[in-house]
From TrEMBL:
InterPro entries: Cro/C1-type_HTH, Cupin_2, Lambda_DNA-bd_dom_sf, RmlC-like_jellyroll, RmlC_Cupin_sf, TransReg_Diox_bact_type. Keywords: DNA-binding. Residues 78-97 are annotated as: Disordered. SMART domains: HTH_XRE. This is Putative transcriptional regulator with HTH domain (N-terminal) and a RmlC-like cupin domain. Coiled coil: none annotated. Residues 22-76 form the HTH cro/C1-type domain. One of its GO terms (cellular component) is cytosol. It comes from Bradyrhizobium oligotrophicum S58. GO terms for molecular function: DNA binding; DNA-binding transcription factor activity. Transmembrane segments: none annotated.
């Protein structure tokens, strides 16, 4: 019975190139070595040695590998540059938000200025929030929505109230990252009439902007 693999010193060029090409092909497909082993039926240890230039493969094993990964055998002998993951195309979207621009929603205790509103279906919603409410009674029910968010104080002092933690006082330059499904509120805790911050909300749900807009519009002042 003949061996299906042939050991080789790591310094040998062809085996090293095969390992590099296998690694590149694996990364293009977003796979781990373990997943490659599962798809091809080859031993994980064998694949690891191949990637590290310590082992070559016989032709039948090369066919087994390429068949399992549904790739052309030539890809294993042509160095490639990893491309974006399948299903994650580069959209090249871009939006510039100038000072004083944005979609403004005024409420009794807040002013929200939504940034980059020309892009629809964003998974991150940036906004500037001017905070005037000083108590939870003024603020009303804690906010909840999908995703997570980061809030950076750019002016004044803000008290962050959350459902499961004691209030946190943030001064200019301080920031907080929270789970947005947890009830939360930002209050003005300084001596000035208002405080201000930049809030970045993100979610896997494509309608995040609509969620946030509906929340803000409930208390909007015409």
């Amino acid at each position: 019975m003949t061996d299906t693999t042939v050991s080789a010193p790591a310094s040998e060029g062809p085996h090293s190139q095969l390992g590099q090409c296998l690694k590149a092909a694996r990364q293009v497909r977003g796979l781990t070595l373990k997943q490659v082993a599962e798809k091809t039926g080859m031993a994980l240890s064998t694949l690891s040695k191949v990637e590290n230039g310590l082992m070559s493969l016989t032709y039948d094993k090369l066919l087994q590998l390429t068949s399992g990964l549904q790739m052309d055998i030539a890809e294993l002998f042509s160095p490639t540059t990893p491309q974006p993951e399948p299903g994650r195309p580069v959209t090249a979207r871009r939006s510039v938000s100038r000072a004083g621009q944005g979609q403004i929603v005024n409420t009794k205790f807040y002013t929200y200025t939504y940034q980059c509103t020309d892009l629809i279906g964003k998974r991150m919603v940036p906004m500037i929030a001017e905070v005037r409410a000083r108590t939870l009674d003024e603020f009303g029910p804690l906010l909840r929505h999908s995703g997570e968010e980061y809030f950076l104080v750019t002016r004044g002092t803000i008290a962050v109230h959350t459902e499961f933690y004691a209030p946190e006082i943030l001064n200019e330059g301080d920031g907080i990252y929270i789970d947005s499904t947890m009830g939360h509120a930002y209050l003005n805790a300084g001596s000035a009439e208002s405080a201000q911050g930049v809030c970045l909300c993100t979610s896997e749900q494509a309608d995040l902007f609509e969620q946030l807009h509906r929340i803000a519009k409930k208390d909007a002042v015409e």
